[in-house]
Amino acid sequence: SRSSAQRVVDAVHTSVPLRRCSGRIGKRALRDAPCTAAQLGVSMCPCAGGVDPDEYQLVVERAVRGLTIEPDLLLQPLTEKITSLATEERFEEAADVRDRASALAGAINRQRRFDQLRRAGRIHIDLGPLGGVALDHGRLQSAWGEGELPSLGLPATTTEQNVDNSGPIAPLHRELADELGCIASWLDKNAPDLTLDHCDGVLASTLPALRSFRPRKGLAVDDSDFVTSSRRSRR
User: Fold this and answer.
1) How deeply is 153 buried, as exposed, middle or buried, from its count of CB atoms within 10 A (0-12, 13-18, 19+)?
2) Where are the domains of the chain?
3) H-type helices in the chain, by residue range?
4) Distance between start and end Cα atoms, the chain
5) I need a labelling partner for 105 at 20 to 30 A (CA). Which of 62, 72, 123, 214 fits?
6) Which of residues 180 and 52 earns the better pLDDT score?
């Protein structure tokens, strides 16, 4: 959703001082003075000049690494901010940052699942008494029932025959995101009952696990009781 996407953007901006304006940067400055966010010290503003290109490149590279192979570069600052706000008893603000962090972690996790399927290439999965399915870079190519021979299905229509397994993959086409999302969720849900018969690549990930920002049941009540008792003790 648009609101979830905005929370992801806000989370990234909270963790790294990327510029927040959208104008195309050229040799000449786009504005006479830094933008409001830059004046507040929460972002850089190369659009106004005065920002060293090499310094800003490091910020961009940090954001890219955080979104791909090193998520703690983005998630750790958010965790620290949540802890700081909660310590100051600014719980509503802490919850807002937590929601941003949760949206960002969810987006990174979805992208990982997409990349994993796309790098795996062609996959044949045995469903036991239900038959089997064939996937091609995450897309359903064919399916067959019990007692039927595996179907070759339709010719592969994917444009990802030459996916580079050594680096970031090109962005997924919008119309394919829903399909790969459904396939990935189905695989996760039914993994104990599936048998992988064939995989062109590797259907696994060596990336570090993502931390969870979902509220844990029962803590909200306990925390409120603790805060109430703490306030009473200070009176």
Assistant:
1) middle
2) 2-18+36-112, 122-154+170-199
3) 2-15, 36-39, 53-67, 72-87, 91-120, 174-190, 219-234
4) 45
5) 123
6) 180
